[in-house]
Structure formats: structure tokens, C-alpha cells
Design goal:
175 residues, single chain, 2 domains, mainly alpha
């Protein structure tokens, strides 16, 4: 359907037009008028730093670590069980990573860089979380098989405390 000059474009079409179009005549004023509203909203969405709430969603959300772990016992075979347990531990790691991103106020997602950006003692705690949850448990599959429920709950509490400590330290004091 044709669009009239000055008419605002629908969001999905505006992004495509702005990304693919080349102005061949004029200064691009009409293109900007038709697409700026969408581009500004998209830029704002992309610029937003992660939040502590997003970190907690990695634990308790619909696809959070706790739910994944609880559903792991519905696995049909050992391979599926292993995959679920590893994923649940990795979602705990994701929660810690997102909390670190929120603390630093960065969009940097690479844990190696994040670790170096955190001050002590958070750097050391985050390094332990990376080493255990992300590398040992998730990548290598070296998670404890005995008392797995207790081990998962123990790590869940460690991650909750990590998030809480970062959040508490990043809030201005009321003194």
C-alpha cells in the first residue's frame, strides 16, 4: 500500500526502510520524519543498561534457573537430564553476569571483560562464579551428582547474595 509524503511508517517497515534506503533526491527530511519515531524508540531500547530485576528473572522467570532445574526431573533420559541441569546452572551464571553488567552500568556481555571491570571483592566472587557455574558445571558438565538439589539451592543462594550485594552497594546511601 502506498505511503503519502509526511505519513508516519509502521514500525517494522520503518526499520527496513531506514536500514535499506538511500536518499537519491533531497536531503532525507521526509525519510527522517517518517522513521525517526521508530528509530528513537529502538535506540532507547538498545541503550538501556541491564537491571538487577533482569538478573532475578534469570533465576525466577518463566525460563529461569529455578524452573529449568525443577523441570529437569521430567527428563526422558540421562542426556536430557544432564542438559537441563547444566542449563539451570548456567542461568544462575547469567543472573550473576547481568547483575555485574547492571553494577558497572555497561552493555558489555563478555564475562572476561566484566570480571576485570568489577572492583574487589566482587571481582573475585564473580571469578569463582564463572569458574564453577559457567566453565565447570555448564561447559564441562562437572557438576556434583550427589545431593544435586542441595547444591543447586546453595548456588542459588550464592547468586542471590551476589546480586543483593551489588545492588545494595550501587544504591546511594541515605546519610
Amino acid at each position: 500500500m502506498p505511503v503519502e509524503v509526511g505519513e508516519i511508517l509502521k514500525e517494522s517497515f520503518a526499520v527496513q526502510v531506514r536500514g535499506a534506503c538511500r536518499v537519491v533526491y533531497g536531503d532525507g527530511t521526509y525519510l527522517r520524519l517518517a522513521t525517526d519515531h521508530v528509530m528513537e524508540r529502538l535506540i532507547d531500547k538498545l541503550k538501556a543498561d541491564p537491571t538487577y530485576n533482569e538478573a532475578r528473572i534469570c533465576i525466577y522467570g518463566v525460563e529461569g534457573a529455578k524452573r529449568i532445574f525443577e523441570r529437569s526431573f521430567e527428563a526422558k533420559n540421562e542426556a536430557e537430564l544432564d542438559s537441563c541441569i547444566r542449563l539451570a546452572f548456567n542461568r544462575l551464571f547469567d543472573a550473576a553476569r547481568i547483575a555485574a553488567m547492571a553494577y558497572i552500568a555497561t552493555e558489555e556481555t563478555r564475562w572476561g571483560k566484566l570480571k576485570c571491570m568489577l572492583p574487589a571483592p566482587h571481582e573475585e566472587r564473580f571469578k569463582d562464579i564463572i569458574d564453577k557455574l559457567h566453565i565447570q558445571f555448564f561447559y564441562l558438565g562437572n557438576y556434583p551428582t550427589e545431593n544435586i538439589e542441595e547444591e543447586f539451592e546453595r548456588w542459588l543462594r550464592i547468586i542471590e547474595e551476589f546480586i543483593h550485594s551489588l545492588e545494595a552497594e550501587s544504591k546511594p546511601s541515605n546519610s
